[in-house]
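Lecture 7 notes: from sequence to structure.
We start with the chain below.
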Amino acid sequence: MASHSEKDWDGFWRNTSESAAYRGGAPQEAVLKQFWSRFFIQTLPRDAPVKLLDIACGNGVVSAVALQTMENENLPGGLVFGLDLSLSALKSLRARSGNVHCVLATAARPPFKTESIDVLVSQFGLEYAGLGAIDSASRLLKAGGVFAAIFHLKNGAIYDECESNRQAIIRLKESHFLPCAKALFSPPMSVSDRQKSQERFVQALTAVDAVLQQHGTGVAGGTVQRLRADVLRMVQNPNAFSQDEVVNWITGMGAELDTYSGRMSAMMAAALDENEVEEVQAILNTNGLRPVLCETMKMGVKQEEAAWALIAESVNDGE
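Predicted structure tokens for the same chain:
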């Protein structure tokens, strides 16, 4: 049976084409793409095909940069694997690129032989599976292989955004906005009961407006703003929708809000502080990987610290 986290992420990829940590057009997009472009240009071999594994790949934004680099630099290419626990994510990846071999598995148990991978990468993914997954992943590298990962930074800009998103969703749920809207489409009621339902809905709407005023209309990827607009459209045009249609939609949206809040919590729980990054480096070192880069990445208009960037090389035999 899938864990709550697995269900959350599969539901996420079923309903979006982009990761919350890598939204198209988001301030961090250019920084992340620049990092991976530079990394692949410097790392991918020019005289032999490569075996590359993108762990917790999502819809393959990192794999896409690798493939583009191979094409732009006229490299020999090779095999590119994208591993993720979400079937929906892999379906999105397959639609995006038929040149990536999709692998449905957890980062903690990658189905590859020890010392079988030349280049192993991960962006906002491997840390979710814990330090044990980093140990398992690093054992996959051949001598001379390269490991590169971008991790969530505890108390960084993306972390703070996740907390803001989570708080907004919690307040939205606490406003009872959806149940109040649902009540308006209940079976026929007395004039007095309907008036009370309408008053409760207006109070809930006021609470939602307060959430948007504090957190901004873009909070949670615009989910709160869109939800408000959709509900108002239904309430103001009740004859345009069937009762069952509205009730089922509202029930489904309530479940989506729960899973969204769960994803935000998971992102925050996975974020690494300085001590935990030192633990990661110690694990890599134990498995014969030498750190090449370990630093925070600055993103956004304010150039705030938002993530960790870590690169390590597997020491060649005889070194």
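Points to note: The chain has eleven helices and seven strands. The chain has a mean pLDDT of 89.
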